[in-house]
Amino acid sequence: MNLRAKLAVGGRVMAAVARQPRLWGTALTQWRRTTPKRWWRQRPFLPVPTGDYLRFRTITQYGSADHPLVADDVLNYLEWCRLQGRVK
């Protein structure tokens, strides 16, 4: 997937999360957990999860590392994380 396609998917995911205020805290928590320490020292110099982590998530979700993320699936994942946090 090229950079333009990745940005488009990221924008769709962020827009979907923005419409779900109850998931904002969970999304921030998951973002913090998946952002590598000292992210500013390595390319792409952005606070985003590593390619390895995203590949792992897409393979476990879709069975292929090449499948683009689907915003509704990310929302379902965040809802699951939110509910798991309430169980503790």
Structural commentary:
The protein has helices at residues 3-18, 24-34, 51-62, 71-87. It is an all-alpha fold and 88 residues long. The protein has one domain (3-87). Helix 1 crosses helix 4 (71-87). It starts with a helix and ends with a helix. The mean pLDDT is 88.
Query: Could you describe the largest sheet, including whether it forms a barrel?
Result: none
Q: Give the total of beta strands.
A: 0
Number of helices: 4
Q: Any low-confidence stretches, pLDDT <50, length ≥5?
A: none
Number of domains: 1
Give the termini separation.
37 Å
Name the helicity range.
Answer: 55-70%
Radius of gyration: 13 Å
Any descriptors?
88 residues, mainly alpha, 0% strand, globular
Secondary structure: elements and pairs:
Layout: H1 3-18, H2 24-34, H3 51-62, H4 71-87
Give a quick precis of the structure.
The chain has 88 residues and is an all-alpha fold. The protein is built from four helices and no strands.
